[in-house]
Amino acid sequence: MTTAASSAQAPRAIAWRIKLLYDGDCPLCLREVNFLRKQDNGRGLIAFTDIAADDYSPEDNGGVDFATAMGRIHAVKADGTVIQNVDVFRQVYDVLGIGWIYAPTRWPLLGPLVDWVYGLWANWRLAVTGRPSLKTILAEREARLGKGCGNPAIGSDSEAVDESVANRCRI
């Protein structure tokens, strides 16, 4: 019984093979994540990390800060390697055993075209999904998390306080 108790207390090794950093406020991103979760089927091969969560920590996610993660999709492999763009999908799908879906994106002519289309998508995804600009999202996040809202004048009736900053800090 001592062995069972010892193994229960032993630290667990990382079970996931790749950590997908996704925007939980993006409806299309959530559809993809839900599909991938079903494909993972509880195996824990993919760790899903919502970058939009207030407790998102770059230190726990390959050093990828929120603004960078919002610009392009990123993932962190179990060895700490950070990958981005279409390569994220290629590797996540490979880990799940459905790599054949993205296999054509490795072809010499199709691969660069898919990468280019993804770049367009990444640049326009916020607008396409009806969301504010990245600059606005960053300012709102900063305000919501209390960065910049520690000024006691913010939220007061002081004329020196810009009303838009005061409104963001009330979120």
From TrEMBL:
Checking Pfam families in the record gives: DCC1-like
Check the record and name the InterPro entries matching this protein.
Answer: DCC1-like, DCC1_Trx
Taxonomy, superkingdom = Bacteria
For this protein, what is any one GO molecular function term?
protein-disulfide reductase activity
Protein name (record): Thiol-disulfide oxidoreductase
